[in-house]
Amino acid sequence: MIGNIGILIAFGAALVAAILFFKKAISPQSSRSAGIDYAMIFYHLHTAGIVIASIYLMYALLTHQFQYFYVYAHSNLDLPLKYLVSAFWAGQEGTFLLWALMAALAGYLLMKKEKELLPAVMPFILLGQLFLMLFLFLETPFYHLGQVPADGMGMNPLLMDPWMVIHPPIVFIGYALLTIPFAYAAAALWKKDWSAGFLRALPWAGAGWLFLGAGIFIGAAWAYRVLGWGGYWGWDPVENASLVPWLTATALVHGLVGQKQKGRFVKSNLLLAIITFVLIIVAAFLTRGGVMADYSVHAFAETALTYVLGIFVLVYLVLGLGLYVARFKSLPVQGSSEGIFSRQGSFAITLVVLCLSALLVLLGTLSPILTGLFGSPASVDEQFYFQTNSPLFFLLFVVLVVCPLLGWKNEDFKVIFTRLKKILIIFPIALIVAYLAGITSFLNLIFIGIMVLALAVNVVWLIRTMKAGLKFSGAYLAHVGLALLFIGVLASTAYTQSQLLNLKKGEPVEALGLEFTYLGLTVEGENNYPVVQIEDGSRVTIARPNIYIAGEQVMRSPAIQRNIFRDLYISPMELQIAGGGETFVLAKDEQYQVEDYLIIFRDFTFVSHSETNVFEVGALLEVDDGDGFREYIPTIVQNPVERTSNPITLPGGERIIMEEVDADNGMVQLSFEGGESPIEEEIFIAEVKIKPLISILAVGAVLLVAGTAISVWRRFTT
Amino acid sequence: MNNKTKWIIGVAVIIVFAGFAFFSFRSALNPYVSFAEAAETPQQVQVLGYFVEGEPVQYDSAAGELYFYLVDDEGTRASVTYRGVKPNNLEHSENVVVVGEYREGVFQAEKILVKCPSKYEEAEDNR
To answer: What is the dihedral of CA A74, A79, A80, A82, to 10 degrees?
Structure first.
């Protein structure tokens, strides 16, 4: 009740505040503060409504109010505090509330900094809030079940990771902050204030870009550490949907810096500010609106929300582009006054490359829908993204090499070359080192060379600018990070080695230049740790991947051993207990003679315990020991974690073990073990991967975010 | 370089790149099909399938691959093999998308796409 009232208040107040700000904006002659004060009161009321709803949802989660569906579906009594808190954003409804909360709070910072354009900016922000409130009416987190379940369903175990606690809030802070450049662009077009007024969007664009980027990296780190398949990026619609606006936001921030320095890129910046926020809502539309439901296993089903989300996209697109087109003729016309060997030229290339890359990723993401228009739907695989983006990013790295050497005015190529000369030696060195490290592909070598060169140039300039103060070195630090990040991406994408291992207990297996020995299973509560010893020359380490049951699900978490050069990534698959005797395969009614026994396989027997996820399959055997036939049923019990055999014992003490089932062809694989010393073997199956330079990638990501943060801090303080 | 040459070079680069992107797009496409269609298509495809009750995902240690059964929307049942790590949540996903080729009566998956965990809960949302 309280929650829904909060949302209702927030909706009403946002509507009134938007109208008041709008009225103020169209009547500039009256005194500045009069209309604003009323609008502010309603803005406070709007924020209060959202805060009340948020606090109430948090309270309901912390105190286990399972009568609310949202609380029931995303938490339970056993959940530790930090995950109870993060259950707030474990579902769709909560994330919309979080988004609205972040945007409402960001509004306060904006009101503190912006005075002149404020009345024209605020209606565009409040309109977005109205849409978010509408989503919360349609899918309320306060849906009442009408009864109180004793316990909740709990949280998805994959979300129970510290990274997943902070990932959604950071992404939504990014979304909320990127609303502001849109509002500035729209207000600037409306008020024809695109030079000074619009430029004040720079710190906001920078901050939104920073948070969105940090959110993407955190999501990638989570995928790598938790999902267990060894990847950090899967080109999945959900991931792409956040990457596309990040790319255009990157272009926007660079364009705004260019505008601040030289008054250039005004047209592109206005368009980029509009497009970036529209792409963010498009992302929400694609992944939550059900449009991709048939093509992505990640998306939601189509609901009423789909249409409202679609309208949200259309309204912002039409509003933004409409204003843009209406004012296009009055926008300053800027010829290309400088050539490409100027900072301005390199910024222009950067903008084009980033926008093209965003467009290509968007095309790939939309491929099932686009192809669906012309025939049967199809989607592109990873190949497309790599192929089309690599020439673009090659160009981007060339720009990264020359950009620090350039001034804002056009320069002679010779001058640039002299500045580069000393550093250029790093290029052949990088090629030789990479070649000796085993990289033989020409294209990859060239890529590595240019990236290392970009790294070197930016490191040199980073050190130079650091002398003037950390504050001015943000861009170079970010570019050093970017170069490291891409070196890591290339190495880990193109040069990961992997092998599937069957590790019999106690028997060393050589793979990927290492020696793996499965030592046995350690069970601690719900966790099953297959302990693996790894010998790397003289160094011996122990890895403990985990196979555990959480609720009804089997989870496998990898063991990762890292050093600077490579990550050793061990994904557990399964544990098998197998016999070591004589093995034979029988179809129905076939027979097999082993020692003194004649064995006939008649049929399968099934026992299913579906609620506990345990299946038991048996083989009905008739065995003649020279004394007439007797029936025996050895079985296999498969539970999600492991498979065990229940052998039968023959009169002479020998055992028959059921090993494999081929139900389709009615065949069974059995093994016969002598009575004297039955040998049983424990086998741990795992995939091991060596992924080079993951640490470099991680360091690069951290430096990139740190550099961005320094730059944003500089833009906010000066 | 005068402006006209710049324009010509610019347009030429755009056309070449657009063509390159288009062909890359075309060659990277994996159509969504049913198992019946997959059996007749000699290229890589994707099939959305549902697990069969009572047929657990099993691992064949001799062949080094996972095998399981899926039924598609048309009700065709196919056996699927996959070399690689069993994705988390695999057994508990109602449906999965397998990407691969249908060869010799078996769908040989190169990739298995499983429901993203953050969206997983929503599937149980049966209001």
So the answer is: 0
ipTM above 0.85, yes or no: no
- Which strand (E) or helix (H) includes residue B36? helix B35-40
% chain A with pLDDT above 70: 92
Mean pLDDT, chain A, as a whole number?
87
Query: Which chain A residues are within 8 Å of B31, Cβ to Cβ?
Result: 371, 376-378
CA distances from A389 to A241, A248, A324, A355, A383 (A): 16, 15, 29, 11, 10
Q: Give the residue on B whose Cα is nearest the Cα of A352.
A: B14
d(CA A607, CA B54): 9
How many angstroms separate the CA of residue B85 from the nearest CA in chain A? 6
> Do the Cβ atoms of B121 and A156 come within 8 Å?
yes
CA proximity to A277, closest of A211, A179, A209, A133: A179
Put simply, the chain A residues between 499 and 518 with a CB less than 8 A from any chain B CB are 500, 502
| Nearest Cα residue to A545 out of B67, B64, B89, B85 | B85
Percent of chain A at pLDDT exceeding 90:
45
3-state SS, residue A520: strand
A245 pLDDT above the threshold of 60: yes
Taking the C-alpha atoms of residue A321 and residue A185, their distance in angstroms, rounded to an integer, is 10
Residue numbers of A between 198 and 237 with CB closer than 8 Å to B: 227-230, 236
Say yes or no for a CB contact (<8 Å) between B61 and A502.
yes
CA distances, A307 to each of A130, A234, A314, A373 (Å): 15, 28, 10, 19
The answer to whether A373 faces chain B, any CB pair under 8 Å, is no
* Alpha-carbon span A547 to A557, nearest angstrom: 6
Angstrom CA distances, A705 to A128, A171, A466, stand at 27, 14, 17
Cα angle A426, A429, A432; round to 5: 155
- Spatial CA neighbour of B66 closest among B75, B55, B76, B77: B55
**CB-based burial of residue B69 (10 Å sphere; 0-12 exposed, 13-18 middle, 19+ buried)?**
buried
Residue A273: both structure tokens together: 């500010």
The residues near A190 (Cβ < 8 Å, ≥ 6 apart) are: A25, A120, A323
> How would you classify the pairing of strands B77-82 and B106-113?
parallel
- Going by the DSSP 8-state scheme, the letter that residue B85 receives in this structure is P
Dihedral through CA A229, CA A235, CA A238, CA A239, nearest 10? 90
Q: Which of B32, B54, B92 sits opposite A368 (nearest CB)?
A: B32
The 3-state secondary structure of A3-50 reads HHHHHHHHHHHHHHHHHHHHHHHHCCCCCHHHHHHHHHHHHHHHHHHH
Report d(CA A158, CA A223) in Å as an integer. Answer: 9
B86 touches chain A (CB under 8 A): yes
- Distances in Å between the Cα of A650 and the Cα atoms of A70, A626, B40 are 56, 12, 49
- Edge-first strand order for the sheet with A655-662 is A582-587, A667-673, A655-662, A648-649
Give the gyration radius of chain A's Cα atoms: 31
Residues ≥6 apart with Cβ < 8 Å to A234: A223
Does residue A181 carry a pLDDT above 80?
yes
Side-chain half-sphere exposure of A104, counting CA atoms within 13 A? 31
Q: How far is A378 from chain B (nearest CA, A)?
A: 4
Q: Give the distance, in angstroms, between the CA of residue A247 and the centroid of all CA atoms in the same chain.
A: 15
A652 Cβ contact list (under 8 Å, min separation 6) = A596, A625, A675
The DSSP H or E segment spanning B82 is strand B77-82
Tell me what the mean pLDDT of segment A229-233 comes to: 79
pLDDT tens digits, one per residue of A93-141: 899 999 999 999 999 999 988 888 888 999 999 999 999 999 999 888 9
| Span A395-404, pLDDT tens digits | 999 999 988 8
Residue A639 main-chain phi, psi, to 5 deg = -110, 170
